[in-house]
Write a structure and sequence with these properties.
With about 150 residues, this protein is of the alpha+beta class. Helix content is about 35%, strand content about 35%. Strands 1, 2, 3, 4, 5 and 6 form a six-stranded mixed beta sheet that branches. The chain is elongated. The termini are far apart.
């Protein structure tokens, strides 16, 4: 009887976890996020961000490619709100890297979720679930001509 109870409990845990797990892929507009108050308040205006193949001034020096992989609590938030918040977190991480390296921009920023590159000038990739949302960005930290 005890073995049946243990098996039944294990089955409930396994199936309830699968029923509640979610990993919804979203492609969301970069511009809408960049124009939000949080982004304008927290991102340093002296550091420039260029997504995908957006044209940028001449590169004076490259400091290398860097990845920022961030997660945030999505519980009780819309997918879009959680994704925008975690995008900001990923961009702040890139901004910190720019400052540490002595650059002034990040170019060729791509979504890099689970190491899958998605290049876009207008959208970023975010994965949202019931509890967590995640964004991964990859970009080249550089000093551009001013």
């Amino acid at each position: 009887m005890k073995q049946i109870l243990i098996l039944l409990t294990a089955a409930i845990v396994i199936f309830s976890t699968q029923a509640h797990s979610r990993d919804t892929k979203h492609m969301l507009p970069i511009e809408a996020a960049m124009n939000s108050a949080d982004f304008k308040e927290k991102l340093d205006p002296s550091i420039r961000f260029y997504f995908g193949n957006q044209p940028h001034p001449e590169v004076v020096k490259s400091y290398g490619k860097f990845v920022s992989n961030k997660k945030t609590n999505a519980f009780g938030k819309s997918d879009e709100a959680a994704c925008e918040w975690v995008l900001l977190s990923a961009m702040l991480s890139l901004q910190d890297r720019v400052k540490a390296e002595g650059g002034n921009a990040v170019i060729n920023i791509n979504s890099y979720y689970k190491k899958n590159t998605v290049s876009s000038e207008t959208e970023y990739e975010c994965h949202a679930g019931a509890i967590m949302a995640g964004v991964a960005l990859q970009g080249e930290v550089v000093k551009i001509a001013e």
